[in-house]
Amino acid sequence: MSTIAARPQRADARRNRERVLAAAAELFAENGLETQVEDIAHRAGVGVGTVYRHFATKEALIAALAEEHFERLARTAEAALVEGGDPWDVFAGAIWRGAAHAARDIAWCEIVAGHAVPEIAGQKRLVAATAQLIARAQAAGSMRKDASVLDIRTIMCGFGHVAAAQRAGAPLDWERYLTIALDGLRSR
Q: CATH number for the domain including 37?
């Protein structure tokens, strides 16, 4: 059985793909997931066909951006695993760093708040690193023993709703929400 190696992309095709991803990230961050593919193509300086050549659907483009976000969050959580200091502070610091970045991105808030994306490697790494951070804080006695990664996912979904609503002009404060949510995880 022979396998045919995938032909590497031409340099101009790689550049176009990166331009499309960068334009999509900017426009989704500014306007949310309702951004039109035509606007992305225009911002990237390519035709709509070029966008679809790299991403068969808008959902595929969203999934590629979600993968980049999850990779960034996974790296943040994994970096926290090697930090010294109080386990609660390390855990909470990682959550705050991820949330501060996400709060500036409408589409990411919409994704976190419930837009379905396929399971991706960065997401699995994020879950694994978060579970370790939780276990350390629990072992130190600073986090509730019943806290789990699912609780963090729920908090971040709520955070996504609050941050998206705040960006849309609602009188909500994502920092206050996250502070209250994290306080609920502390052991008393």
A: 1.10.10.60
In a shared domain, residues 84 and 123: yes
Amino acid at 150: L
pTM, two decimal places: 0.78
The two structure tokens encoding residue 103: 């709060």
95 and 38 part of one domain: no
Residues listed for the chain: 188
Please report, as a single letter, which amino acid is at residue 129.
Answer: A
Backbone Cα Rg of the chain: 19
Contact (CB, 8 A) for 145 and 95 = no
Torsion, Cα of 181, 183, 186, 188 (10° steps): -130
Question: Which residues is 186 bridged to in the sheet?
Answer: 143
In a domain, 168, yes or no: yes
- Please write the tens of the pLDDT for every residue from 79-91: 999 988 999 999 9
Contact residues for 172 (Cβ-Cβ < 8 A; gap 6+): 162, 165, 166
